[in-house]
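G., the chain you wanted modeled:
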Amino acid sequence: MVAPETVIQQQEQVLALVSAGASYQQICDETGLSMSAMRRRLACARKRHKIDPHLADKLASRGVTDLAGLHSGWIIDKDEHGAGQSLYFFLGPDGPISPEDHAEMMAAAFADVPPAPEIKAPEHTAKGKVAFFPVSDFHLGAVITDKEAETAYNRAIAVDRLRAGFSLSHAAIPPAETAIILYNGDTTHANDFKDRTPRSGHVLKVEGSHHANVSLACECLIWQIDMARERHGEVIVSVRRGNHDPSTPIALILALKNRYANDPRVTVQDDENDFFVFQRGKLFICAHHGDGLKPEKMALQIPHKFRREWGVSDHHYFFTGHLHHTRSDTFGGLYWKQLPAVTVIDQHAQQQGYAETGGMMAMLFDTAGGACSEFTTRL
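Predicted structure as tokens:
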């Protein structure tokens, strides 16, 4: 067992290196700690510096050095007869991970992503055509057994469903001048290692660590992008947040930007807008995860939020997900479609009597004439 003094020294060393401007990866290299161990020691050091030094010393004297995640407790100094003192302490919850720390962790996690292999552009693509491949509600990491719902779901099943759905829908769309791969939210089931929904704190049943699930999602995206590079002229990649995973997109964006930095045919969108927007010629495509407002109310905002793009277009399309089943409607001059979910229905939906509707879709657009064709496959 490592002595408490040694653990505290490591924690202080990590904090000092961060304060000196060292990156997370540099700190791991210098200390020999793993990324998760380094982050834990940093969180402990930061919390120790926020509490009363006397209390921190008392806890350390009893071997309590891992303050990250420690909320409250008792320090009891009593003999067998009950004589002595007891002290109740309250440290409070750990604060949320800052955007800077999250970005640093993700950059370190994907620092070794290899560059993309060279893939020659196809000789023939349809000029003015846009192939659209949305992926909605992947929920990678979710666990559902066939005893709990109609269909089982786990990481292996999720990847198989995504690969099968994309292979079929991609093959159904002819080579286009532009391909769009859009991950429209809830890519991962959880937002971080706490395995709770960010807003309500609802406990989630998750398979694997968040690090492993983000890495697996990145592998899926790379597979899709490289397939699209072989068939289409340019590939636009967009990863948007969902209500389950508002922090996941930044990790995937950093990794993909690093991998395709030298490929001029791949554009990885890097912005913090909840909406995805594509405008070219007379074509306008917009998407949002779909949480927060009903689609008809959200649709009212779009012409005002994107006035220039809306104004120069004649054909307007809006896509949402979130509710895990398909619907479509028109709101004024805007065609709306609710995308199918890659995941299966969960225990709650099963109890409510909903039918299994998982699937993936693809569409072909013309920048002058709008929608040309649509393909949907059940999963």
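The radius of gyration is 25 Å.

Shout if anything looks off.
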